[in-house]
Design a protein that fits this description.
With 522 residues, this protein is α/β, with parallel strands linked by helices. The protein is 43% helix and 13% strand. The strands form 2 sheets. The chain has a 7-stranded parallel beta sheet with strand order 5-11-10-6-9-7-8, sandwiched between helices. The protein has a 4-stranded antiparallel beta sheet with strand order 2-3-1-4, covered by helices on one side.
């Protein structure tokens, strides 16, 4: 499971840009569905308002107005001052009546009178169901009557009738005069519910946010390495290179259209369709050349190429890296040390008779098993030969150690194609015999815990790890750290599973990983 540590703002921006299409689609679909619901399923509601000013009673106390705790008029007060005082008291009394008047509107008497007037105008037809809301802005002497109905015309008419009935009732019951309608009800031009435009925008934005959040959730729950940034955040080892995903080459391999899988020698003229992957191997070759600078140049360098789990393409990487060294004129030997699964006949397109197993178990001489000057390059190939019953015993034998010592004097580079670390114990043996190991990981395939376990196993036996190679790097799924062309290519490989592109990383096919795998391909 990934963490939020060491994630830059640029990463989140690039992640959002990467998933812009499903996010936009989710927003559009949610907006369209919401619009359809608001348009065809939700009944609109219209509101009409009538604003009334509450006047004052002409006889305080006798007209039902609450008595106020008012000090008596001092002796000698002029008539003008007393009149002003009476007006103020009347205003205060009117304001205190507002609460009572709000309740008046909710009475059955008031509602019956309004409906009676409405039926009189419409030949006895009752109004549609409606709702009345009474507001008193800022505790003033104003009342706002709001009628909400499914018909804009009825909302207006009911609001007007309520204003008329209200003035009539407060004058008859309470003796409140000088009240008047300030704003008459107007015909509503648009419904107050649903607010289609606002609702569609809000729902679309929420859908986009939720969709992006789900992608983030799947990303952080999925432990598969997704690009170089994931790889660099998971380990402290240097990334020696990236090999581009070549979909055309992958299709050729799957359909058995390619007689070999060597692309390191191609260039823009001789193999334009695979030129990018060829250039990536040249960059990888240059980076590998400058690892282990303490090594004595007098004898050849021995490199173990391995991976954490099957299916990461380590044989493809090892073979093309060997060809790339030979292209520069280095005397190079590649040995198929994966004695469980012979791959060189597929990678190099060669027929294999004898190999390393014959040398170690039967005493066959090296010259009778090695294939010299493959592709007219200073590249020799030593296949594995027949599958032995005890691969680890042969690789840990004195005979193999003596053979490597002799070969170091003949070659400048010896590449050992080792089995995956999680599959068998052979790799740690080969790592100790070599100058160091290079790990291959596959984009969108290798899990962080599998890589960490492989590094730990090699470190336990003091095997120096020169670095990691990202295989299957797909620039279409990267953000800012892509290279403009897709990297990566891997053979499905597994003991007892045959060849294919299945995920043999040991993870259970839970709903979370299935969803994550589906979205990772988008």
């Amino acid at each position: 499971m990934r963490t939020l540590a060491n994630r830059s703002l640029q990463f989140y921006v690039s992640f959002a840009v990467k998933h812009w299409l499903p996010v936009v689609v989710a927003a559009l679909v949610a907006g369209a569905v919401t619009w359809g619901i608001c348009k065809f399923l939700v009944k609109p509601s219209y509101a009409a308002n009538t604003t009334i000013y509450i006047g004052r009673s002409g006889n305080f106390g006798a007209a039902g107005i609450p008595e106020l705790n008012v000090q008596p008029v001092p002796p000698g007060t002029s008539k003008e001052t007393e009149d002003v005082r009476n007006v103020v008291v009347g205003l205060r009394a009117g304001m205190e009546m507002v609460t009572d008047l709000q309740l008046l509107i909710q009475t059955e008497r008031f509602q019956s009178e309004v409906e009676k007037k409405f039926k009189g105008k419409h030949d006895g037809k009752s109004p549609k169901p409606y709702k009345v809301d009474v507001k008193n802005p800022k505790n003033s002497r104003y009342l706002m009557l709001q009628v909400i109905s499914g018909s804009p015309r009825e909302a207006q008419e009911l609001a007007e009738l309520m204003g008329e009935v209200f003035l009539q009732e407060i004058e008859e019951l309470l003796g409140v005069h000088n009240s008047q309608i300030i704003d008459s009800a107007k015909l509503p031009q648009a419904p107050i519910y649903p607010r289609t435009k606002v609702t569609v925008v809000v729902v679309a934005m929420l859908a986009a946010v939720v969709t992006l959040f789900l992608f983030f959730l799947l990303y952080f729950l999925d432990s598969r390495l997704n690009g170089v940034e994931d790889l660099q955040s998971a380990i402290t080892l240097p990334v020696l290179g990236e090999i581009p995903l070549d979909n055309q080459l992958l299709q050729e391999v799957e359909k058995s259209l390619a007689n070999h899988h060597i692309v390191a020698t191609l260039d823009a003229k001789t193999g334009a369709k695979h030129a990018n992957i060829s250039e990536a191997f040249r960059m990888l070759r240059n980076n590998v050349r400058y690892t282990d600078t303490k090594k004595n140049d007098a004898e050849g360098r021995v490199l173990t190429i391995t991976s954490s789990v099957p299916g990461e393409g380590k044989s493809f990487i090892a073979s093309n890296l060997a060809v790339s060294f030979a292209e520069l004129g280095y005397r190079t030997l590649i040995i198929n040390c994966d004695l469980h699964k012979a791959m060189f006949h597929k990678v190099f397109g060669i027929s294999v008779k004898g190999g390393l197993v014959d040398i170690l178990s039967s005493g066959e001489i090296f010259e009778n098993c090695v294939l010299r000057h493959h592709m007219d390059l200073p590249l020799d190939i030593l296949p594995c030969g027949p599958t032995p019953p005890n691969p680890a015993k042969l690789l840990d034998s004195v005979a193999f150690k003596e053979l490597l010592t002799k070969l170091k004097a003949q070659y400048q580079y010896i590449i050992l194609d080792a089995p995956p670390i999680s599959a068998v114990a052979d790799t740690t043996i080969l790592g100790k015999l070599a100058d160091g190991a290079i790990l291959v990981v596959r984009d969108h395939y290798t899990r962080e815990e599998a890589l960490s376990s492989a590094i730990k196993q090699l470190s336990l036996v003091d095997v120096e790890i020169f670095g990691v190679i990202m295989n299957g790097s797909d620039s279409r799924s990267k953000g800012y750290y892509g290279h403009g062309y897709g990297y990566g290519y891997g053979y499905g490989y597994g003991y007892g599973y045959g060849y294919g592109c299945a995920d043999h990383s040991g993870a259970s096919k839970t709903w979370r990983r299935r969803l994550s795998k589906f979205f990772a391909k988008k």
